[in-house]
Amino acid sequence: MKKIFSFLVILLSYEISAAGGGCGTLLSEDGMQEGVCLHAEIDAKDKPSLQRGAQLYMNYCFACHSLKYGRYKRVADDLEIPYDIFEDNLIFGDAKIGDLMEISMLEKDSKTWFGAPPPDLTLEVSLHGADWIYSYLKSFYTDESRPLGVNNKVYENVGMPNVLLSLQGEQVSTCKQIPIYADNGGLKQDPLTGKLLTEEKCGFLELVPSTGTLSPEEFDQSILDLTNFLAYMSDPIKEQREYIGKYVILYLLILLVLTYLLYREFKKDVH
User: Fold this and answer.
1) What is the C-alpha to C-alpha distance for residues 229 and 121, in angstroms, rounded to an integer?
2) Could you tell me the pTM of the whole model?
3) Which pLDDT score is estimated for 115?
4) What DSSP string runs through 229-260?
5) Across residues 90-108, what is the average pLDDT?
6) Contacts for 206 with CB less than 8 Å, ≥ 6 apart
7) What is 207-237 written as a DSSP string?
8) CB 27 within 8 A of CB 206
9) Contact criterion met (CB below 8 Å) for 220 and 227
């Protein structure tokens, strides 16, 4: 019994970690919550989103981060991209359509350049969750004290450059005045003037205007597409699995009814 209980505890811990942990020091817009991830509305059935995400990944991420548990051909088939278009635009170097999605950068070189080899991202969404990935990709900011000039609110002291800087533009960490809440949940006011009392809080992310090629809305959509693609790579058969799962549950319900009726017949014979 103890072994079963221990197994269930370990399994529960794994499920919690797979759902994604906290998001570091990321602040909500009102500054009242810290470490809460942004929500990513991903859709495994949205083929255009997956195609755009694949294009972004192959052009901005694949130089360092492999997807070695996936194959080009499988991605092309699932995303409904013709092989000739896929080969011309999303396969670089001497790789073939049937190859695993591995990078050419050597591990020893990457360790020298970045301090540690960049991880393979095939199962990254399964490890952290889509919301964590989405929040991480949106939370880079300028930090001149870091070797690469950037830091991240979700993953502090990150060793990765902001490869999407040209798209998003420069983002800085700033301070703002926010309302002070009383113990009863209301806003504190000055007893003499009636004005709301505020306090300074730092850590808010703010974009520097006109420094990126995309608008904030376009960049948000691009990050959502990229997150959607990584979620697909972590679970390529999610759509089929969920489709089959409905029929499995229906079968089990029918079997439950038949089993109950059979039990009633046996019970009659016993009495």
Assistant:
1) 11
2) 0.82
3) 80
4) HHHHHH-TTHHHHHHHHHHHHHHHHHHHHHHH
5) 92
6) 171, 172, 173, 174
7) EPTT-SSS-HHHHHHHHHHHHHHHHHHH-TT
8) no
9) no
